[in-house]
Design brief:
It is found in: Secreted. The protein is of the alpha/beta class. The chain is built from eleven helices and eight strands. Helix 2 crosses helix 3 and helix 6 runs parallel beside helix 8.
């Protein structure tokens, strides 16, 4: 789940009554998403040299028109499902927009497959938008919004926003745990963890200075249990040491958010913990209507990336599988995760819009 884990990033903006009618209606959520392949809705399609793409079959087979969109799953991302719960369309990819488009007032997705907290993460994908890059894109969007609605209205939009951020999985799976890359040799695990947390603190502080006040950080899922990691184990079971890394990272991020809340006036940053949700999905799939959680619906080759290729063979019933490819959950699994995150009281306390009781979303 470099993706699962990785995870998903959403920002809700409630339009002020002084904002022109081209902005979202009063009380209507505007979403800005930051993240990696779990929340990418097509940004990497616009990066010509990126090797982290899903703009081909069988990705998107269960999405609206059955065609690939750049989402790394067979259907919806977690962000898509939460957008629907909030009654708004899923925001378009940043790289598909002009900063003159009125659409930027109603939501933008900055997520990029292969992205990490560290800029060097995913370097072998050639092109991707790191978290630093995504924040820079948001900064450009804010400038464009200011040109449209003015300084005061833009400030209110940003201060009222909810930023839902999901990153970190690629920093392990596509960086530290890769023997051919430098960071795993340069740093011990505690040193690498310190680097991630220190970098993330700077990035969240930067977002705060751009106006972010209400932040939900989507923690990492048990990466040691995703198909790509199981494939490296002699017995095909979960990699315990990878899950230990995840638990330590999640714990450090929780403490970081508490610290930022105490020192940044008006900051309300919450941790959305999906670790136990996903672990329960994997250990007890039948309780959620699934049958298979140890391997993926798409018969992938983990030696050549683990993505679902056009010549791959699919399972007979995609709703029975937790995982779509070697990293990413299926549409059906994303719905379970989104429902439970949406009902998390810690998340709900950040912004009233997220306190709505979850309701099933049709496929």
């Amino acid at each position: 789940m470099a993706a699962l884990l990785a995870t998903v990033t959403i920002s809700l903006l409630f339009a002020a009554t002084s904002i022109p009618t081209i902005a979202a209606g009063a009380g209507e959520a505007v979403i800005f998403a930051f993240g990696d392949s779990l929340s990418d809705v097509g940004n990497n399609n616009y990066l010509p040299f990126s090797l982290a793409k899903s703009d081909y079959p069988w990705y998107g087979i269960d999405y609206d028109n059955g065609r690939p969109t750049g989402r790394f799953t067979n259907g919806r991302t977690i962000g898509d499902i939460i957008s629907a719960k909030l009654g708004v369309p899923s925001p378009p990819p940043y790289l598909s927009l002009s900063m003159n488009d009125d659409a930027i007032l109603r939501g933008v997705n900055y997520a990029s497959g292969g992205a990490g907290i560290l800029n060097e993460t995913g370097i072998y994908f050639i092109q991707k938008l790191s978290f630093d890059d995504q924040i820079s894109c948001f900064e450009k969007t804010k400038v464009a919004i200011t040109r449209k609605i003015g300084i005061l209205a833009t400030k209110k939009l940003c201060n009222d926003a909810l930023y839902f951020i999901g990153l970190g999985s690629n920093d392990y799976i596509n960086n530290f745990l890769q023997p051919v890359l430098a960071d795993g040799h340069i740093y011990t695990f505690p040193e690498f963890e310190d680097l991630l947390i220190d970098t993330l603190e700077g990035q969240l502080t930067r977002l705060y200075k751009l106006g972010a006040r209400n932040v939900v950080f989507h923690g990492l899922a048990p990466m040691g249990c995703i198909p790509s990691q199981r494939a490296t184990a002699a017995d095909g079971q979960c990699l315990g040491f990878v899950n230990d890394y995840v638990l330590q990272f999640n714990s450090r991020v929780k403490k970081l958010l508490v610290g930022l809340n105490s020192k940044l006036p008006g900051a309300q940053m919450a941790f959305a913990d999906c670790y136990n949700i996903v672990l329960d999905l994997i250990n007890h799939p039948e309780q959620y209507g699934f049958k298979v959680s140890h391997t993926s619906c798409c018969n992938v080759d983990t030696t050549v990336g683990g993505l679902c290729l056009p010549n791959s063979r699919l399972c007979s019933d995609r709703k029975e599988y937790v995982f779509w490819d070697a990293y990413h959950p299926t549409d059906a699994a994303n719905e379970v995760i989104a429902n439970q995150l949406f009902a998390d009281p810690d998340v709900g306390r950040v912004h009233p819009a997220l306190g709505i009781a979850p309701s099933p979303s049709p496929l």
